[in-house]
Amino acid sequence: MSKQGKIGVTSENIFPVIKKFLYSEHDIFLRELVSNAVDASQKLRTLASAGEYKGELGELDVRISFDPEAKTITVSDRGIGMTAEEVEKYINQIAFSGAEEFLDKYKDDKVAIIGHFGLGFYSSFMVSSRVEIQTKSYKEGAEAVHWSCEGSPEYVLEAGSRTERGTDIILHIDSESEEFLSRDRLSALLNKYCKFLPIPIIFGKKQEWKDGAYVDTEEDNQINDTHPAWTKKPSELKDEDYIQFYHQLYPQTFEEPLFWIHLNVDYPFNLTGILYFPKVKNQMELQRNKIQLYANQVFVTEEVEGIVPEYLTLLHGVLDSPDIPLNVSRSYLQSDAQVKKISNHIAKKVADRLDELFRNERPLFEEKWESLKVFVQYGMLSDEKFYERAVKFDLLTDLDGKYFTLEEYRTLTESEQTDKDGQLVWLYTNDKEGQYSAIERAKEKGYSVLVLDGPLDVHAISQLEQKLEKTRFVRVDSDSIAKLIVKDEAKESHLSAEEQKTLSEIFKARLPKDEKRNYSVVFEALGAEADAVLITQGEFMRRMQEMARLQPGMNFYGDLPEGYNVVLNTDHALLSRLLSSEKSEIEPKLQSLRTELAEQTKLVEDARSAQSAKKPEEVTATEREELSALAAKQAEIEGKINAELRAFGDREPLVGQLVDLALLGSGLLTGEALAAFIRRSQQLL
Q1: What's the mean pLDDT when you consider all of the chain?
Q2: In a domain, 656, yes or no
Q3: Which positions does UniProt annotate for ATP binding (predicted)?
Q4: Which of 281, 285, 509, 605 could in theory staple to 646 by disulfide, Cβ–Cβ 3.0 to 4.6 A?
Q5: Residue 212 annotated as part of some ligand binding site
């Protein structure tokens, strides 16, 4: 028997198209050929179970070998094999309408299309200059068949040399793909794509170290686990089995998982798998693409976006489903009804498992919370349904390390931390050391302070403020303690407007000059026992800037300088002392300037009053120029006064000491300024 012919395709350029289109995934050929061999083996087993094959099955395994000198890779199986007619039907006919249409339609799904459009076998031409098939059908009386093709539509079909049932695929590797003629390279590919296939995959012999080198033993090197943990029933597995499988998936990970969820669904879709919550040592080390997707134990991809909710791509593990439409672009997955059902089911199972652990083993749940927290928060921020489920076990942590649900914390704090307007105020810190002084002030008032220092906390509290009735979060250093939770009407300052202006100019002389930070002087009556000067940072703008650092599209806030308030306590004796020094030392020099300023101010006010009594069109250019000149003179006199006050502030050690103490208490005093503060403190002592 010998026959020559052309492969039935609608495009003469099918082989160049295959190579070009699949170039970035050209190592996938091995997965496809091994998967085909596994299919052939399983079909024979099915036929034997049904009584349609009476012969001996023997060892059903798939063997991969390579010959560097001959530049060949061979994939062999002992499955059902093919007759000449079946080779004609399954190899020589490629059924699709046209290469260009095909490429356009499935351009977004390079990985998954092979094998779903009859291209599995033909992926071998991505790395081969010639491909041979030696095959013999399981059918009684079948003759061996040999097929050969050099990467063009022409092929040769003739009598083969195989004596036993099954198939050999022999790849003659081209010069551009000789990297695959390596034991290490092939071993890595088999481990990536084939390590959980249901038929034994044999790649050479196991090796041992002997006389300074690795040598083959007599034992076959089976690279796969044919019965991985996810294919078994949960009742068949112990905790150690799940942990062992986790390390089998991630051999470079030494930490044990927090816990796991075993998925086993057969209606209305098929889905099995095991999802692990990894232990998070550093929340910035979170990695995506750690969930491996399989279809009937054949590895497909680690890119599961669209199949798993985005926030769950932080989990690790395996999903296996033949019902995920891998032959379409990933963008289509978002609208596929079956995929949505699978995605929703996975999200519900995760929420149910967390809820179960919280209700039944709360101490264990709290112990694992620091690692679980980022998953829960991400889910609550991303998925409204997950929020509704998770709000019951979302935990808050206080300074003492105690954990509270949202309702528990409301009960704890509502009597003491509800302000005069009925708003419940939850104070928090994201830096216990840096905000120590502010924390102590809050504790002295009997307030509870939360620790919120996670990467998603700033987003999470903004969400909770929208969801929880009459509740807001305020960082403990964002204002003076009296204004964090306002119980009564604010006390009025006893300083006059002129005294406040005087102190403002004096302190401005010693405020840091920093392009990244703006400082504004404000006055509050905080009581004689409170600090003379403290520095606060408004909650809204600071929170917006923190969110900007984490969220694209908010760069406007991120580019703005940070704003701080320098709060001068008008009740404090040191400020009174400072005013007394200024009045005795500076005011005599300023008397004539202040008198001149008062006179100039009256002239400005009179001119403005006269102009405001007229319609705009009735005011002459001369009048406008006169007012402008008067105002300029007023500003000049004010500038002279302010210069004297700032000069006083600049040389007065008490001002520098008070400002630096406030900066030090807020963690803002560093470098040269800190060294100068230490020297001044020693001098004062």
Answers
A1: 85
A2: no
A3: 32, 36, 77, 82, 97-98, 167, 330
A4: 509
A5: no
